[in-house]
Design brief:
Number of helices: 10
Shape: globular
Order of helices and strands: HHHEHEHEHEHEHHEHE
Helix content: 40-55%
Strand order of the largest sheet: 3-2-1-4-5-7-6
Number of domains: 1
Number of strands: 7
Largest sheet: 7 strands, mixed
């Protein structure tokens, strides 16, 4: 698939805000426009990728050799292929351009495959994963930076099917957005959801308790506030209500 670098693309925009090199001027200009609309976007992207790196290192220490990653984006800047070089990794993304570029980046990398699939089409996803991993179903499942784009029905259905696919002892890592309770809760929530509507995307905020329910029958064993886990300098617009929203990362077990 030919790549038109004069048009911005979300995977390259994400790579840019992470400090990567697989982006172009159109992507950098689009990133500036997104940040104007959603000021915390670069911090959220860095925190999601930092958590992914933490997950990758943890799974490497645990000796995990099979990983299914959902909503992968481009495999750059510390993705699972870097932290788990000896593992089999099935990356999944729905965007055809992202998949085409990712396959180029992974060309010649043993055990790493990129699948184009919509994770809401669960039957096809599970079928591909079952074929790729075969009888080896002791998996690490990454759902980092993607769960908050799925409704409760879609996310809950996906979690149940993944739980059935995986063998006991499998692990799940997932991130989600929350606006903590406080006097400006409603303003912060409305600012975030309004920006999502302007961007024409579905975006779902969840409390930690709601996440425990929606990922069941996976059993949540730990939760981490990524602002505390990966602290950064105060944002340049700390008064903006969207900065109240936090990202949490969870680990769950099968």
């Amino acid at each position: 698939m030919p790549v038109d670098v004069t048009q911005p693309h979300i995977a390259r925009i994400y790579d840019y805000v992470l400090g990567g090199k697989f982006n172009h001027e159109a992507d950098r200009l689009a990133a500036a426009a997104i940040v104007d609309l959603v000021p915390p976007y670069p911090r959220w992207a860095r925190q999601n990728r930092a958590f992914l790196g933490h997950v990758g290192r943890r799974w490497a220490e645990d000796g995990r050799t099979d990983v299914l990653d959902l909503g992968s984006g481009l495999p750059t800047r510390g993705h699972f292929d870097e932290h788990l070089p000896g593992a089999r990794v099935l990356f999944v993304d729905s965007d055809p351009l992202t998949v085409a570029q990712a396959r180029e980046l992974l060309a010649g990398t043993r055990g790493k495959t990129y699948l184009q699939a919509d994770i809401r089409a669960v039957d096809a996803l599970i079928e591909h994963a079952a074929t790729f991993f075969g009888d080896a179903r002791l998996l690490g499942v990454g759902c980092i930076g993607v769960a908050y784009f799925l409704s409760d029905d879609d996310l809950g259905g996906l979690m149940r099917r993944l739980h059935a696919l995986c063998a006991p002892g499998s692990a799940l890592a997932l991130t989600f957005h929350e606006v903590p309770p406080g006097p400006d809760y409603e303003a912060s929530k409305e600012a975030l959801l309004t920006s999502a509507r302007h961007a024409r995307i579905n975006f779902y905020l969840r409390t930690p308790e709601q996440v425990v329910d929606v990922v069941a029958p996976w059993r949540v064993v730990s939760r981490h506030d990524l602002d505390q886990m990966f602290p950064e300098a105060p944002p340049p617009r700390p008064e903006h209500p969207m900065h109240r929203a936090r990202i949490h990362g969870i680990f769950a077990e099968r």
